[in-house]
Amino acid sequence: MHPTDFTLRGAIEALNEGLLTSVELTQAHLDAITALNPRLNAYVTVTAEQALAQAKASDARRAAGVAGPLEGVPLAIKDLFCTAGVRTTAGSRILDNFIPPYESTVSGNLLRDGAVFLGKVNLDEFAMGSSNTTSAFGPVENPWSRANDPDTRLVPGGSSGGSAAAVAARLALGATATDTGGSIRQPAAFCGIAGIKPTYGRCSRFGIVAFASSLDQAGPVARTVEDCAILLRSMAGFDPKDSTSADVPVPDFAAACARGVKGLRIGVPKEYRLEGTPPEIEALWEQGLAWLREQGAETVEISLPHTKYALPTYYIVAPAEASSNLARYDGVRFGRREKGADLKDLYERTRAAGFGAEVRRRIMIGTYVLSAGYYDAYYLKAQKIRALIKRDFDQAFANVDAIVTPATPSAAFGMDEKQDDPVTMYLNDVFTVTANLAGLPGLSVPSGLDAQGLPLGLQVIGRAFDEETVFAVGNAIEQAADFTALPRLRAGA
Amino acid sequence: MSFTIEGATGPWEIVCGLEVHAQVTSNAKLFSGAATAFGAAPNSQVSFVDAGFPGMLPVINRECVAQAVRTGLGLKAQINLWSRFDRKNYFYADLPQGYQISQYAHPIVGTGAIEIELADGSTKTIGITRLHLEQDAGKSLHDQHPTKSFIDLNRSGVALMEIVSEPDMRSPEEAGAYLTKLRQILRYLGTCDGNMDEGSMRADVNVSVRKAGEAYRTRCEVKNVNSIRFVMQAVEAEARRQIEVWESGGSVDQETRLFDTGRGVTRSMRSKEDAHDYRYFPDPDLPPLVLEAEWVEGLKATLPELPDARRARYVAMGLSPYDAHVLTLEKETAAYFETVAQGRDAKVAANWVTGDLFAAINRTKTSIAEPPVPAEHLGALLDLLANKTLSGTLAKTVFEAMIETGKSPGAIVQERGLRQVTDTGAIERMVDQVLEANADKVAEYRAGKEKLFGFFVGQVMKAMQGKGNPALVNEVVKKKLG
Predict the structure, then answer these.
(1) What are phi and psi of A174, to 5 degrees?
(2) Could you tell me the pTM of the whole model?
(3) CATH (residue range A3-259)
(4) What is the gyration radius of the CA atoms in chain A, in angstroms?
(5) pLDDT (tens digit, 9 = 90+) per residue, B132-153?
(6) N or C: lower Cβ tally within 10 Å for chain A?
């Protein structure tokens, strides 16, 4: 067995049993990166030397009998998490020379638990995108391809495209990611892996480059639901440096995976049956519900009446916050600076040269919806609808324990597809944005393949801070789906 | 007494309201742990939060919130248990985040009031509209280099209270009295040091003019005025400018102006058309600020005594309203007075503090914070007066010696033998000598020239080198002349 084929849990066990060392495991992943990254472009920065040093130190700790829960496990870090001494770009030209002197709380928690960082992975610029094509460091390629059309390069989804592609191609055992409107769940579904956006407030946002503060949430992607559970336990926890971080205990998520679904009530929202959804996805959804019933769950139709407003609401709230959050990239104190005749000229040249088209578009949308005279009609209205969407879920969860939906309205698409009209691209988030607007946990589980042999995912949404039930349901789907298909581009293949 | 400015078309009334920015006294900034001391080297008190670095998040400083609540309580204002922080978005080189975190829609403190005292002894109530917490920006330095601007972020993120008054002031004097009283209250509370020359307190002055009985006319805002004197000058200068505009047939445009302290005039900074669209919206990094009623009650219970209450107490102790006013102007003066008056005659203590001590402070160019004579020493001197060890004259001599030497009055009396003589026998012998030596004057006195009585007393005191107990000397002289 090739070392990169381990699941994260399998690797921990192998390390514990002395079957291999962290240095060996890390080196195998670095070799795989060397071999495949030139094609996939998943990593923006590979920190090979630092990774091997961390692995060596980890092996020494293990030998000394002080192994953390993630001791020696090589991971990829989305380049939105600030890493002390390692360049952090947010996928943007405006930060292409930025080396933070501080560590994000989430990546710091992983280091505390013994993890090894292989490097920083690609993403849509400032996490704005659903195809990882807006990155200033070039697009990421999905390691999967269509059976009857293997030459068309597919997108990995976004914004955490680098994280998902790296994990699917076995260039890391797991990765950090972030999700503002679907940026963990959609790429996970496109790349045939699992990914969870936890409850808003579960993971600290300190040290993560902000996109939309009220929606951003960090979470893991990994090849199994259980691996996600293991990673999330290390990533999560109250952080006094983030005022929106929740002071609640972090349960043993991995233990919850095996709980089973017997007696659980699973909600099936009727508003998620969208016209134009491919029949394969409809069928997979039905199949997923059938698997859960077979394992003792009850499925019930529910209504989330404000669902149709979710996408427009999201595309007001997120750009509004982003337009303000990105004001600090002005060329004055850090990052790229273009010379200007005066201060205003410096701002305009720096931001024009530093931001890509999608980021500029969202800054303009956000500035517009917050402007005097438009604020009430757009931003304030969106906040009211957001409250109604949240109320929809509150009412639904009075009656059900979890909600199951498709993760995406399609499988991965070609790099040249859907690029002409931004709204077509925005529709990718139709099933995922609601969980962000309501602050709820959402898990994407690889559940089947379409006719082209591309992975499809199902989404499990849970009550706030009830990731345990989400993991139990996700694990049940994963077991029943027995998803063993592999991408064409992968280490060891 | 109403104040008006006489124009060509008759008298005009001034309408004035103030927005005061008061720096919160606290060790750390509003949303970061960086220090706030004045006068530190540029950019030496800046955290990554203050510099707006990627991924940095604000965390509210509890002490700054407590200071705002204390101030609200001191202004007899409504404390809002639910308030919220908004972002005020604009680009400037000394605003690292590209927005200022402020409380736009939901301030922590609502309506309150301040009572001001005017020179004619009258008082007036000025309404407080609101008080909110916000971050200060950094400082741009344009005079350090011919082509470059320098940025100092030490102030970036420092907590400010913006205290907004109602447009209740009608004269420069009232504006000055308001600012004086507000500063006095803040200093008593310890929530702002009120040092305007260090920028801890600055005022935006809103001024309009109108004819008697009219509704408000358009106002202008004079930004960032940094002394009480300049505020009074700015009110008058701006009012006169507006009267001229109205009377020459024009109309006043709503705009932001600056006060040119050198020329004593205001000039336009930006018009309403150029006004920023600040795109206020709730800061998503900060949940609403929710206070517990018990916590506010706790702050209220430990609030120090405020100037108005203290003045009333002094009057009740027997002081004149004027002395009570003077003694409470500065917190340090009141504290000094209270030490001196502790267990002693309050009126005597007040006389010495407002008389001899203030004179000595002026003469020696010291201050009440670093007085020429410690309050304990002055108290001891009053004890020596009370127990008749010293006469009033002797006490003045001892007081001067205390200033010169820094020694206690007891030590000075001991060293110089200045103890007053109360031995009746000694006084009688001295009186006899004086009357004997001035037999002619005694005859005149007895013939009816009674005003010579003071002469005899003076001669006796002189002969006794001032140490004779004045009451006893008087008594004995009277008896002997009898």
Answers:
(1) -170, 170
(2) 0.91
(3) 3.90.1300.10
(4) 21
(5) 999 999 999 999 999 889 999 9
(6) N
